[in-house]
Design a protein that fits this description.
single chain; alpha+beta; 4-stranded mixed beta sheet; 11 helices; 35% helix; globular
């Protein structure tokens, strides 16, 4: 069930550091220990991610561990929305986005900024966006939401306003299934959505939320994914490591290591669970150490403990 780490994981990490004047006020930074005072550092690499999106949180700290072991100084930039992250990536203020849904969910951002972004590899195949309800709720399809608005107080509980999942739900799913006027998509943050979901399940109340796979919450909560007969939530897609244009030329060793990272369901699930639930904020490095002990051969070129 929902624990304290869930809510806290969206908190700001580290001291304030603006990416650019245009990004001031929406980012913070943390510099890893390894290589930060080392004159032999191969250079500084900035990882930009949204802490509330735990796929990026988990892979950011995996990359931090691996890149520091390779000899780089790593800076961690946390943001609250996808748009500033893509702007920073395209502008070179962020070197890597460690978990991009660039094929479908973030396709609009890639269309706008993709010319200044380099795809460094796909680390997970088969990700998808979903609509979910508690298992005790007596509907099984998104189509069944129509006419049942009173069951959910006329709202779909969503995540961040700038998320691709939010845009897809508002602009495609709701009109496809004729839910306009009956439902309002209520947005705030991933942490807030999970709090609402946990509270509803504890009270055995009906709730409908926007979710995605892979995501630890699918196993932690008593929920089911609604069928999507019209395909309004899009097909499956890969989760990508994106770099600013020219990254692999400037940092060839880092690019080679990143390209080799490909995780299956068990490996990814264990990584996210350790980072978010078992260890949590303030213990991310320990979570990565535990994962490396469990999966010392997860990918070619892995630098173990």
């Amino acid at each position: 069930m929902l624990n304290g780490h869930t809510v806290r994981r969206s908190a700001v990490i580290g001291g304030a550091l603006a990416l650019t004047v245009g990004l001031a006020g929406c980012a913070t930074a943390e510099t890893g220990d390894a290589g930060s005072d080392n004159g032999d550092s191969k250079g500084t690499i900035t990882l930009g991610f949204i802490p509330g999106w735990t796929d990026g949180l988990s892979t950011a700290y995996l990359l931090e561990d691996q890149l520091e072991k390779l000899g780089y100084t790593v800076e961690m930039e946390t943001l609250t929305e996808a748009a500033p992250l893509y702007i920073g990536l395209a502008g070179g203020d962020v070197d890597i986005y460690p978990s991009a849904w660039s094929e479908v969910t973030h396709a609009a951002y890639m269309e706008e900024y993709g010319d200044d972004i380099e795809d460094l590899g796909t680390y997970y195949a088969g990700a998808s966006l979903t609509i979910a309800v508690p298992t005790y709720t007596e509907i099984d399809s998104i189509a069944d939401l129509a006419g049942n608005g009173d069951l959910f107080d006329g709202k779909i509980t969503g995540i961040e306003p700038g998320a691709g999942l939010t845009a897809l739900t508002q602009d495609t799913m709701i009109p496809t299934y004729g839910l306009e006027g009956e439902y309002e998509l209520v947005t705030s943050s991933t942490a807030a959505m999970l709090t609402e979901l946990g509270n509803a399940i504890d009270a055995q109340e009906d709730i409908v939320v926007t979710l995605w796979r892979p995501f630890w919450a699918n196993a932690a909560f008593d929920i089911k994914t609604l069928e999507d007969p019209e395909g309004a939530m899009g097909g499956s897609e890969g989760l990508h490591f994106l770099g600013t244009a020219g990254f692999s030329e400037e940092h060839p060793e880092a690019a080679e290591l990143i390209a080799n990272i490909q995780l299956d369901d068990a490996q990814y699930g264990a990584l996210e669970n350790l980072v978010v639930n078992e260890y949590g904020e303030g213990q991310y490095a320990e979570a990565i150490d535990a994962w490396l002990e469990e999966y010392p051969d997860a990918f070619e070129g892995l630098l173990a403990n």
